[in-house]
């Protein structure tokens, strides 16, 4: 990627972070008090996400190796992963920032087709694991209700039914996408959006062969490389479960629970309902407003006070801004590509064209 293009991504992310810093729902005095109250638990949250990002990078590496050699180091792949998520957090409609950046950074190592398919496959797996995560939360809620830990009124029944239908539809669509590919169909769907019809048609005609190859690589992961497929799914799904510890740390700090299984399951449900609510508002930078509302509603459903929901949401927001800042700074580190990787990729692409 050229330095000029990298600087554009950097500027977009930086502006977004500055805007987010000035759009907190609490004063900086109160925010500092919350940070001081979190203390070492906030450090634990930040460290937890270092592990989660490493797991994301490992998932991506497994996907890349499913279609051939992976010439990029795990450390650099982790760096690109953190920066990609930082851009996704900071830019509206998320994927408009991080995914193109990851493709352009990975292109010199494995070529544009494999870079595009691997990034798309990782995004698909990330979303696919979320659907299963939400399905698991529905089963967990019903189990806790049966044990007498939670209530289940008419409103909650409707929410659980709608969640089940939504997740089932999402899982079905993704399974079809893994079997037959989805890039060509996705571009065709974009062509039905007012104002994008001409662009989509021209893009499909100019890149028809490349789009078909990417679809073939997507379907190959599930049909020919089942080990890589299930390994990448397992890593992403377990990563969502590990993320629940972030909520659990804050509940223990607030004395809203003990370090036991029930508190963890509450944390699991709070994360699941909040992430679903926030992802429905994916077009907001850092999901502003949606995440806070999700925390407030989910903690209330668990029988906790609104103060707990606000405190947890603020600490999660601090963690997001911290890692978004780290991701932007990492964009300026280790930008050189070894010559042997670029030459190998260029020669392979020439052979493929012939």
Walkthrough of the structure:
It is a single chain. The protein is mostly helical and 354 residues long. The chain has helices at 3-21, 28-38, 40-65, 74-90, 95-110, 112-146, 154-180, 183-190, 197-206, 208-223, 226-242, 244-253, 261-279, 290-301, 306-330, 339-353. The protein has one domain. Helices cover 80% and strands 0% of the residues. The protein is globular.
Principal-axes geometry comes out as: globular
The overall average pLDDT, rounded, is: 81
Structural class by SSE content:
mainly alpha
Low-confidence stretches: 350-354
| Main sheet: strands, sense, barrel | none
Give the % helix.
Answer: over 70%
Radius of gyration: 21 Å
Number of domains: 1
Count of DSSP-assigned helices? 16
Distance between the termini: 25 Å
N-to-C SSE string, H for helix and E for strand: HHHHHHHHHHHHHHHH
Beta-strand residue percentage: under 5%
Per DSSP E runs of 2 or more residues, the count of β-strands stands at: 0
Task: Furnish the topology, listing elements before pairings.
Elements: H1 3-21, H2 28-38, H3 40-65, H4 74-90, H5 95-110, H6 112-146, H7 154-180, H8 183-190, H9 197-206, H10 208-223, H11 226-242, H12 244-253, H13 261-279, H14 290-301, H15 306-330, H16 339-353
Helix pairs in contact: 1-15, 2-15, 3-4, 3-6, 3-11, 3-12, 3-15, 4-5, 4-15, 5-6, 5-16, 6-7, 6-10, 6-11, 6-13, 7-10, 8-9, 12-13, 12-15, 13-14, 14-15
């Amino acid at each position: 990627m050229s330095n000029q293009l990298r600087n554009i991504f950097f500027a977009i992310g930086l502006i977004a972070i500055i805007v987010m810093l000035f759009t907190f729902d609490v004063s900086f005095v109160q925010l500092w008090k919350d940070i001081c109250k979190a203390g070492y638990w906030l450090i634990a949250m930040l460290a937890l996400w270092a592990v989660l990002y490493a797991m994301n990078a490992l998932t991506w590496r497994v996907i890349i190796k499913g279609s051939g050699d992976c010439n990029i180091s795990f450390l650099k792949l982790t760096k690109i992963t953190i920066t990609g998520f930082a851009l996704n957090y900071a830019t509206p409609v998320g994927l408009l920032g991080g995914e193109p950046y990851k493709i352009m950074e990975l292109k010199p190592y494995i070529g544009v087709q494999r870079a595009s398919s691997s990034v798309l496959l990782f995004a698909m797996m990330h979303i696919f694991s979320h659907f299963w995560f939400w399905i698991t939360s529905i089963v967990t809620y019903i189990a806790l209700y049966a044990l007498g830990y939670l209530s289940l009124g008419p409103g909650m029944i409707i929410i659980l039914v709608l969640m089940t239908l939504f997740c089932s539809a999402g899982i079905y669509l993704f399974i079809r996408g893994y079997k037959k590919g989805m890039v060509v169909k996705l571009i065709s769907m974009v062509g039905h959006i007012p104002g994008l019809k001409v662009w989509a048609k021209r893009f499909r005609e100019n890149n028809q062969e490349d789009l078909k190859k990417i679809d073939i690589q997507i379907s190959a992961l599930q049909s020919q490389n089942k080990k890589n497929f299930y390994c990448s799914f397992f890593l992403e799904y377990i990563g969502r479960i590990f993320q629940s510890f972030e909520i659990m740390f804050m509940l223990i700090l607030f004395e809203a629970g003990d370090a036991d299984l029930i508190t963890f399951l509450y944390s699991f449900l709070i994360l699941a309902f909040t992430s679903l609510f926030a992802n429905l508002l994916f077009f907001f930078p850092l999901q502003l407003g949606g995440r806070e509302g999700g925390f407030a509603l989910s903690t209330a459903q668990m029988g906790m006070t609104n103060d707990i929901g606000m405190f947890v949401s603020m600490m999660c927001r601090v963690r997001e801004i911290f890692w978004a800042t780290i991701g932007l700074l990492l964009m300026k580190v280790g930008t050189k590509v070894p010559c042997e990787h670029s030459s190998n990729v260029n020669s392979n692409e020439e052979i493929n064209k012939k």
